[in-house]
Specification:
Blueprint (H helix, E strand, L loop, with lengths): L2 H4 L1 H23 L4 H30 L7 H19 L1
Helix pairs in contact: 2-3
Length: about 90
């Protein structure tokens, strides 16, 4: 069983909170709120997204990128996939 399935409820709750933060940001922009408030909303949403990414990434590393039960070729493929994911995230 995948780590995202095992932690589905927890991850879904985090995603829903992020959606709420993005909706609050949209409302602030629509209402032409002060830039300081908009910046705080952006920072909060980014922090929440970063936390979600860290949690899923940790599970991925522990479950899929561990070399314990892999051949060297499988381990290299898992490392390459993980590198690609992190690079895309950091863009």
């Amino acid at each position: 069983m995948s780590h995202t399935i095992r932690n589905k409820a927890k991850l879904m709750n985090r995603a829903k909170r992020i959606r709420g933060q993005i909706e609050a940001l949209e409302r602030a922009l629509e209402q032409e709120r002060e830039c300081g408030e908009v910046l705080r909303l952006i920072a909060a949403a980014r922090g929440a997204m970063d936390s979600l990414m860290a949690e899923v990434l940790e599970g991925h590393i522990r479950e899929h990128a561990s070399t314990t039960h892999q051949t060297p070729r499988q381990a290299m493929a898992a490392a390459d996939e993980l590198i690609d994911i992190v690079r895309a995230y950091l863009k």
